[in-house]
Write a structure and sequence with these properties.
The protein is mostly helical. 62% of the residues lie in helices and 2% in strands. Helix 2 packs antiparallel against helix 3 and helix 4 packs antiparallel against helix 5. The mean pLDDT is 90.
């Protein structure tokens, strides 16, 4: 934690945060029947670092990687989980660099929380519907939308989301279609974007909840 401070070289600070990002309070047993236990104190430190306006963006990105890893393991402390959701909602704002915003979207997907007032799906739908955003960002938001645990949060109408996904699909096909015919190799970027949208229907909330 001391090495993350401003008196150290940026390389040292980033590497120190990357080490913190891998720490657990308790490691998984050798049979892997249980996940490792999240170190809440280290997680709180990473959240604070990511929120710090004076912190280097590279250190923030390293902190977000660690928070993401902990979110995928499972954060049992509801207050800390709520803080992570708040952080992810802040990170996706246009005031941040796009690579940090993408990290915020990924974090929201890893956490899976909808929020008391459906803050997560609302924020993601705003990204999906915004034509000024990059297609990659909008498709990442669609994938994150499909990763939310709607069964554990307030119900939302899914018809607008279905229409948004349909419009986004059309945009992807229109803006990334090959200029020299339907060459399979030239379709790889299109397929990658469409796969993010497809996951919402295949494994996401729209199919089981309707």
């Amino acid at each position: 934690i001391r090495l993350v401070g401003p008196e150290y070289h940026p390389f040292v600070r980033v590497n120190a945060m990357l080490v913190l990002a891998e720490l657990n309070e308790k490691e998984a047993p050798t049979d892997n029947k249980e996940p490792p236990k999240v170190d809440i104190d280290t997680l709180k430190f990473m959240i604070k670092a990511a929120e710090d306006p004076m912190q280097l963006d590279a250190v923030k990105a390293a902190a977000l990687m660690g928070i993401d890893r902990n979110a995928r393991i499972g954060i049992k402390d509801d207050r800390v989980a709520a803080d992570v959701l708040k952080l992810s909602l802040e990170m996706i704002k246009p005031s941040h660099h796009e690579w940090l915003r993408r990290r915020g979207v990924m974090l929201m997907a890893a956490l899976g929380l909808v929020g008391k007032d459906a803050e997560a799906p609302k924020a993601l739908q705003q990204l999906i519907a915004n034509p000024k955003e990059a297609l990659a960002m909008r498709c990442a938001a669609a994938r994150a939308f499909g990763s939310l645990d709607f069964a554990a949060g307030p119900r939302i109408p899914f018809t607008p989301a279905i229409l948004q996904m349909a419009h986004l699909t059309v945009e992807v096909l229109d803006k990334t279609k090959p200029k020299t015919g339907w060459n399979p190799q030239e379709m790889f970027p299109t397929e990658a974007l469409l796969r993010d949208i497809e996951l919402v229907f295949v494994a996401g909330p729209i199919r089981p909840l309707g």
